[in-house]
Each structure stands twice: as structure tokens, then as C-alpha cells.
Design brief:
The protein is of the alpha/beta class and about 350 residues long. The protein has two domains: about 190 residues, Isopropylmalate Dehydrogenase (3-Layer(aba) Sandwich); about 140 residues, Isopropylmalate Dehydrogenase, CATH 3.40.718. About 40% of the residues lie in helices and about 20% in strands. The protein has a ten-stranded mixed beta sheet with strand order 2-1-3-12-11-4-5-10-8-9, sandwiched between helices. Helix 6 packs across helix 7. The longest helix has 17 residues. The chain starts with a strand and ends with a helix. The structure holds 3-isopropylmalic acid and magnesium ion.
């Protein structure tokens, strides 16, 4: 039996992950599931957001289905004890450096997009976000300036090896899609970005079939709402990718729709919706489970090589949405569970 780790986490994490697991169970693929606490839930239960047993399960499993972390009651804790450290720790410990965040408009959701229908309809892009470096993992701290002022600092850096491996992930993804790769950086200001751009250009020599372009991140943010149809694959660093993927989600209607895969060099992966724990609606059955369900589809495709059932899940989500099933984020009244059931019925 193939072992899948289920890490539901905080807020709406458990309710959306439950629907995704039920979808996998309906497909009857011979998967075994084992669940463990992570994030604020794990902190409250045992004093640490990423307990050794959870990390051990993540290592043992073939793939990980992750919910969300984030808990306002933990905001005053030392940073190393905060829920977010669990997901950052998993990404780092398991070397999950390549984060794939696809965004495509589902038919019938034109009205939910923040963009005009004719602009939104053209969206079919993939953000390849670097996940193991950048300002997220550099030296950070609080200190006092000579003038006695408090100062916070976070060091941004990438070495060329880190850039090269995500460049390759970006080029490979573009090669499998429409052959266009747009690298997003801030090379007009940041040395980190200059190296990023240099390595992208060097790597392009091995991918004559892929057209590489570059955008500064401010321009990329603008282009993403002006004409998102121009993008095929976007490759970018950890911080810029975090921001641009939330922006992309509203272009296709809701942050409740975007799944993600975080992969290591061997294809092992952690799969999670890009949304957070949404504590304001947690436990009310209002969260959209589609991002979690689509993450389960990515798990089948990328970690288990099961493309056919992955396609079926994605088609079932499209069918359920086209039939008018909508959670509150999409202007509808369906509960989390009802939305999950609609997808399973379409399977
Ligand atoms: C994401 C989230 C995380 C990130 C948080 C929860 C640490 O926003 O996966 O996009 O910043 O990477
Ligand atoms: Mg984010």
C-alpha cells in the first residue's frame, strides 16, 4: 500500500483536507492514510508546531497532503514556535524546492474573477516558485541601531546552485506546456536578482526550444492583471512567488481554487492549497475545498505517476463548478461538505 501522510493543520485546514481525502478514497487506488498534527494544532497538543513524529511520518510517506497552518493565538510566540515554521520546516527538511502553482480559469467562473471576463478567460499559467531560499531562510533578527532604535533584518540571498535547480524546473515545465518561460526578478535593484537573471540566461542555453523572457516583479504584478493570457510559465523566487500566486488566485476567481505541489529533485512532494488557515471562517463549513481537492489530483500526478485519475479529479471539479455548485467565496451557498460531495458525484 502506498502511504499518504495527511497533515490537516489549523483553521480550515482539517475541513478542506477531509474532502480531499474522501475524493482519493472514492477512487479506490490502494492508498493508505496516516494523519499527524502540524502547526498551531501541534503546538497546542505538544508544544511544537512540527513534532518529530510528524516530520518522521512526512519522511516515511510517499507523498504528503497538507491543509494549512496559521493560528492567531500563536502570533505572540517566539518565531520558532509559530505555526508557519511547520510548513517552512517541512519544505526545508525535505528539500521541497520546486513549488508548482497552476492557475486556470474554470468555465463558468468568469463572473467570480476580479478581472473582466475576456481578460480572465485567457488565463492558463503556472507559477514555479522557489521554496528553499531567499529572504525566507536568510539570517534574521532584531537588533538595536547605534542611535538606540529597534531594527529588524532579514537577509536575502541565493547561491547559483539554488537558482540553477529552480531554473531547470521552470524550463522543464515550460517545455511540457507552451514553451514560454518568464523569469521574474528585481535585477534593477537587487544583487540576488542579478545572479538569478544571469543563471536563468545561462540555463537557457540547454533549452533552445523554450522562449525565455524577463520581467521586474513590479511590472509582472501589473501584467498579471493587465494581460494574464500572455503568461505560460512564470519562474520566480520564494518571496515574489508567494505574492504573485495570491494575486493570480483572484484573477481566476478565488484563492479557494488554487492547488500547489512542492517537489524535491526525486519527485517526492507535499501538496497543499495555496490559501491559509482562514481562522475567521474555520469550523463553519464555509471554506472552499476545491484547492485541496485539486492538490490531491496533483499528488496523484506528480508523486504517484497516476495521471488518469488526476485528470478525472480535475474534470470532476470543473463539472461541479459548471453545474453551479459554489461555496461562499464564489458567491454561492454550498457548504464545504456539499461542494466535496458534488465533486465526488461528478467522479
Ligand atoms: C504560502 C503561505 C506560506 C508562505 C506561509 C503560511 C508561511 O503564504 O504557502 O503561500 O509564505 O510560503
Ligand atoms: Mg502565500
Amino acid at each position: 500500500m502506498t502511504l499518504i501522510a495527511i497533515l490537516p493543520g489549523d483553521g480550515i485546514g482539517p475541513e478542506v483536507t477531509r474532502e480531499a481525502r474522501l475524493v482519493l478514497e472514492v477512487l479506490d487506488l490502494g492508498l493508505a492514510f496516516e494523519e499527524a498534527a502540524v502547526g498551531g494544532a501541534a503546538y497546542h497538543a505538544g508544544g511544537h508546531p512540527l513534532p518529530p513524529a510528524t516530520l518522521d511520518l512526512a519522511r516515511r510517506a510517499e507523498a504528503i497532503l497538507f491543509g494549512a497552518v496559521g493560528d492567531p493565538t500563536c502570533d505572540a510566540l517566539d518565531r520558532h514556535l509559530r505555526p508557519e515554521q511547520a510548513i517552512l520546516g517541512l519544505r526545508k527538511e525535505l528539500t521541497l524546492f520546486a513549488n508548482l502553482r497552476p492557475a486556470k480559469l474554470f468555465a463558468g467562473l468568469e463572473d467570480a474573477s476580479a478581472l473582466r471576463p475576456e481578460v480572465a478567460r485567457a488565463i492558463d499559467l503556472l507559477i514555479v516558485r522557489e521554496l528553499n531560499g531567499d529572504v525566507y531562510f536568510g539570517e534574521k533578527g532584531m537588533r538595536t541601531t547605534p542611535a538606540g532604535l529597534r531594527e529588524g533584518y532579514d537577509v536575502m540571498s541565493y547561491d547559483e546552485g539554488e537558482v540553477r535547480r529552480i531554473a531547470i524546473a521552470g524550463f522543464e515545465a515550460a517545455r511540457r506546456r507552451r514553451g514560454k518561460l518568464c523569469s521574474v526578478d528585481k535585477a534593477n535593484v537587487l544583487e540576488t536578482s542579478q545572479l538569478w537573471r544571469d543563471v536563468m540566461i545561462e540555463t537557457a542555453a540547454d533549452y533552445a526550444d523554450v522562449a525565455l523572457t524577463h520581467l521586474y516583479v513590479d511590472n509582472a504584478a501589473m501584467q498579471l492583471v493587465r494581460d494574464p493570457g500572455q503568461f505560460d510559465v512564470i519562474v520566480t523566487g520564494n518571496l515574489f512567488g508567494d505574492i504573485l500566486s495570491d494575486q493570480a488566485s483572484m484573477c481566476v476567481g478565488s484563492i479557494g481554487l488554487l492547488p500547489s505541489a512542492s517537489l524535491d529533485a526525486a519527485g517526492k512532494g507535499l501538496y497543499e492549497p495555496i490559501h491559509g488557515s482562514a481562522p475567521d471562517i474555520a469550523g463553519q463549513g464555509r471554506a472552499n475545498p476545491c484547492a485541496a481537492i485539486l492538490s490531491a489530483a496533483m499528488l496523484l500526478r506528480h508523486s504517484l505517476g497516476l495521471a488518469e485519475p488526476a485528470d478525472r479529479i480535475e474534470a470532476a471539479v470543473a463539472t461541479a463548478l459548471a453545474a453551479g455548485h459554489r461555496t461562499a467565496d464564489l458567491g454561492g451557498t454550498a457548504s464545504t461538505q456539499a461542494m466535496g460531495e458534488a465533486v465526488r458525484a461528478a467522479l
